[in-house]
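Teaching assistant here, posting this on the class forum so everyone can see the example we discussed in section. The complex has two components, and the goal was to see what a joint structure prediction looks like when all of them are supplied at once.
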Amino acid sequence: MTELRGSEVRKRIGWRLWQQLPLLVALVVLWMLLWGTVSWISVLSGVVVAIAVTRVFYLPPVELSGRLNPFWLLVFLCRFFFDVVVASFQVAGQAFRPRGVRSNAVIAVDLVTVSDFITTLTAITISLIPGSLVLEVDRDRSILYLHAIGVESVEEAERVRSKVLSVERAIVRAIGSADDVERTRA
Amino acid sequence: MTLDDWLDLAAALLLVLGGFLSLAAGVGLLRFPDALSRLHAATKPQVLGLIFILAAIALEARSWSTLLVLAPVLVFQMLTAPISAHMVGRAGYRTGNFREDLLVTDELDEAIERASKETGP
């Protein structure tokens, strides 16, 4: 192993701190929210707890794409909320309707992106929209296997698949890398 | 009607809607045919139901401090619900706790078969 010079070590520590900073800030803000007060003591104890928590429960750093489009993010959030409302009432309708639910489907969706971050966000979004549930993830090939309720034909399964892909496209447009944007457009 | 009355009315409507979605979740839990479909009822309609109830509380309280307590409730619910659903769903699928005759297609089963053929028995 080669020895690292002092400046390089400092740069590396600085980079790690910079990467962890959003998480630390979020933890401190959460700490203050839970206490319900903004004071020096709560900020200081929050910083201590945040550092302790990130040390004890170490997570691999999330690789962000470094791109954010606020307009498409807003479009995505609005569409997401709309989807949640529509699908919630759909599932409620399926619970109440006399014939109930007769068939479901397990569908594989081959995502376009290879980024873990986008795959995770897509999976969370799909899981939050009622009627679909991620059963299994093939991380290497970025394939999501989901269980969809009330799917009665292969055509309907196709519709669920294209729906998931459009959710992925919306997320990529909001925060995906430029590379992913190109690919989803193709 | 004053603005306060309108806000009270909106909060009341939101509470009724939230209650309705929770009821639907309960009915779904009873009526859906197998474990995996029941999971949909157990985890999903409450997300919107919770949003409605929290919105109603926010409209009634009308104070920033309440809103700041409500926000993390929603954020954590939305972060944890998909994960718990995924864990239970995955375990349910792997242990075969679902009715295969109800599935239109099962592309996960096909993928598993393909993979086990490649690696041999």
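For the discussion questions: Strands of chain A lie at 104-110, 132-138, 143-148. Chain A touches chain B at residues 30, 33-34, 36, 84-85, 87-88, 91-92, 94-96, 100-108, 123-124, 127-131, 133-136, 138, 143, 145, 147, 149, 151-154, 156-157 (CB under 8 Å). Think about how each of these relates to the inputs above.
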